[in-house]
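On clarity, I found the account of how folds are encoded harder to follow than it need be. What matters is that the chain and its backbone geometry are given together, residue for residue. The format is easy to grasp once an entry is in front of the reader. For illustration, here is how one protein appears when written out as sequence plus structure tokens.
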Amino acid sequence: MANALNRHEALSPRAFTAAIVRRDAFGRRRAFSVLVADVGGRVVGYASFVAGDHTDVAARELWMHDLFVQPTWRGRGVGRALVTAVAREAARRGFACLEWGVRVGHARIASLRGRALASVAAGR
């Protein structure tokens, strides 16, 4: 699915294999964490993130690298659920914030960012 995101973003193809994901997301020396959206036993989206330090406020944070939902599942709340789950993970860890960047031209995702985080802040 990471390669599907790369294609969607018109990035050059990468050798992102299932073995690399298992090693880097689920292995002994994890490089990143991942949450998946599962509908009926089928993965329809994912979010990947890492822990880091927010140097502006001298506090721990999560940085979300990727947010991807299969095209047929977009607009159904899957992305919002993933962002909310990552934000809750940041809160569970006692981190100050969740950050991620949105590419120019992704207005739909930019608007999702505020709505999802507002629902976490409100305790939903």
